[in-house]
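Q: Sequence in, structure out?
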Amino acid sequence: MAESSADDAELRHACAQAVASSGARGEEVSSSIRVAKGRGIFEKLGRLAKPRVLALTGK
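A: Exactly. Output:
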């Protein structure tokens, strides 16, 4: 079975590094999820939007 993106340790580590480099001190990544938003008619043509990452942080 495929591993869900919510359990991806590499993704969580990358998000933690990005949060730390942005200047947020004491913030910890509690959850990170890969998302991709469709672009209406372009989705049917095979052109999807760039994948994004949502990261929830807390002190």
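The helical segments are 9-21, 41-44.
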